[in-house]
Fold this protein.
Amino acid sequence: MADKLLMILVNTDPRNGEELGAPFFQASVAAAMEYEVEVVCTAAAGQLMKKGVAENLFVKEGSDKSVYEFIKDAHEAGVKFSCCSPNLDLFDMTEDDLIPECSGIVGGAYVIEEVMEGDCKVLTY
């Protein structure tokens, strides 16, 4: 059985707040179960790693808890967050624009290698 869960947020769209709770909640749960968890944000979801974006998004209208707070909860539980390198150009970001919970930039080769050669299970949102 794999000890690592690689979650790829590729189809999760920040414009649809109700899509954003489950991935971060499930990442937190997996980390609490003592699995190594990494969330790679790519495509539109890459915007969530940019300072100021997730702070202004909410899973449910009227909620006091922002998506950024879900990210912080997951990070505190041990979840590692990464941003896919093409997102920097796509969303006019630099590494300085990334939220503190984002551990850095990964490329497509990293994701492919983790999936094909790593000892992990992959969950895609």
About this structure: The mean pLDDT is 93. Helices lie at 21-32, 67-77, 86-90, 108-117.
